[in-house]
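Late entry, written up from scratch paper. The run itself happened at the end of the previous shift, but nothing got recorded in the book at the time, so transcribing now.
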Amino acid sequence: MSYKRQVMYDYNVHAAPVGARRRQRPRRALTACLLLAGLGIGSYLALENFSFPQPGSDTEQIDSVTLQLPGTESAVAAARVKTTVSRIPFEPQVNSRPAAEQPATRAVPADDWTHVTVAPGDNLSLIFARHGFSKNDLHRILELDVAAKNLRHIKPGQVIMVNVDDDGHVLGMTHELDYRRSMQVTVENNAYTATIIETEPEIRYATALAKINQSLFLDGQAAGLADNTIMELTDIFGWDIDFVLDVRKGDQFSLVYEEIFKDGEKVKSGRILAAEFINQGRRHRAVYYANTDGLSGYYSDSGSAMRKAFLRAPVNFTRISSKFNLSRRHPVLNTIRAHKGVDYAAPHGTPIRATANGKIDFAGNKGGYGRTVVIKHGDSYSTLFAHMSRYARGIKRGVKVRQGQTIGYVGKTGLATGPHLHYEFRVNGVHKNPLKIDLPQALPIEKKYIADFKSKAAPLLAQLDELDNSAGSDKLVATVDPDVRRDASGTVTRTAQ
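Output as recorded:
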């Protein structure tokens, strides 16, 4: 076959039929429409001649049905639909109660709840989108003041439980605010309600005993104590013991404290109720007491206030790099210059706390002191904090501060060879050694509360005595005593003997 004939053959076999099929498409579409129309007419005629077996009347006409779409206003979402329902030869299983007696809310099965733990960067909009919950319902819930206040600023780690129907519409929501409070959202008659629910957690009482072999923190943790409980212990005795300078190997501490449980699981460690610290052979004891007027604090077993007018140290768990010395050689200037304070070596950025209530008298750069804060405590006392890296927010002249408040952070501004805090204590303008001066005492318990204090302190002190008797045990760990309870008045009792 010649080349020309081959080309013509290929055209006739391939190209031409394609073009022909394209021209035939309208005809095929018309044919399909006619066939469908015929099938529809035939089906209609067949159904006209068919009926279910009827025990009574042929059909029941329902004039109108109102359809309410979830999450929309009834005036907008309502639609009236006419339909015909044919009766069937058996009675359907339906609720026979009148409509007025039907429950307004649907019972929510416990296993229908979705538990969501808030992740960093999460917000409710992201959570609802991720789980397919109705955003329209979210907007309606956030219109409630209680819900808006507690849901707009959710935090990582918080738990939100949501119950939805098959279409993603919210039937209920619970948000745990803390171990005592939760917010519940319920729906009734297509309207949401938000309520704060408060529950009292279970409080158990634990005891711990430890000897210091390495450090207060390490040995406290080995005894089963949480970090915040160890810090509270240092705050209780911080007026009598300098935990930077005074603690020695072989010192011993014991305490009775609360553990808070919710639904059978420990939530956190609570308040220390009684504590003892034996430092270099000297015994210190403290008991928590709240009087009938609502005033509370820690007191010695004789009723003296543990809280003094001044803290012993302005920073926690550091070392003293230079003591009070009126003939010290300056490390930078290399000359004899009196060191009228105490230097606490600490990592850069360590918080510095006010040692007593007072008013900021100076906050700024002060020559070789660098960034400095001076606090006046009444007419007689003042304290100075130098070489700060920066000040705490709001610290400026004239501002009142309270004992233990953070006023700045450790640095090495001014004439300093490394990060540390230079701390001075002055009485009537004269420098005193803050490590040796007798600090002013706070007021003891008022006489009218002494009897109440002794009755409440007695069982706690008895438990400390029991711990002392077990000090020789090798198992120095925290234990929970299920028989010890405290009533609403604060009295601690043992329920079993």
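The chain is about 20% helix and 35% strand.
(Scratch paper discarded after transcription.)
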